[in-house]
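Quick illustration, no need to memorize.
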Amino acid sequence: MTRPFVGATRILLQAIVAVVGAGLLAVSAMLVVFSDAGSSDALWVALRVAALVAVTLIFTNICVGAFRPFFVRVFKGRTVQRVHVLLDLTGFVVALGHGLMAFVFGIAGYTTAAVWIGPIALVVLVVVIITALTRRWLRRSWRWVHRLNYLFFAAVMVHGLTLGYDLRHQVLAKAWLGLLGAVVVVGFAYRIVGGLIARRGRRAGA
């Protein structure tokens, strides 16, 4: 079991994590606000901001889960779990808001299959949230269900690259999503490798 950071080091790392988290959300909004269509219809801007913010929230939540050992050392384990669930819930609400605004704005002309990726991904996210809230009763199975977060993120990437105005027209937005995707892949690999190492350790000590 890893020891938590102590004293000034822990406070500094907590501050850095908070600043990075706020910065991620700020970048998502600025990609839309400072784009060539940032001053267009308010609903059009809002639904695009909501889309990128939702992606960023889910990305952040995946990182919290993937690199949980580090975050547990910086914060208390219970705090990490509460933030984990809160990010899922907030991401769901923002993504749902994006979907509702999209239907109000109009989806005529968009590829039907790509449009339906959004609602399906929301259903997957609901399942993930439920497993996070009921993990005490699901024992080991909740971990496998919770990994649907990665499937959700992949679906969102396809949805955004197919339909998203910013992701289709902005190089910076594409680079931003690519960076988030790369970190998610690294986090997934880290989690798998870490799990295999831990499993071997338990077998060796048995």
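The longest helix spans residues 171-205.
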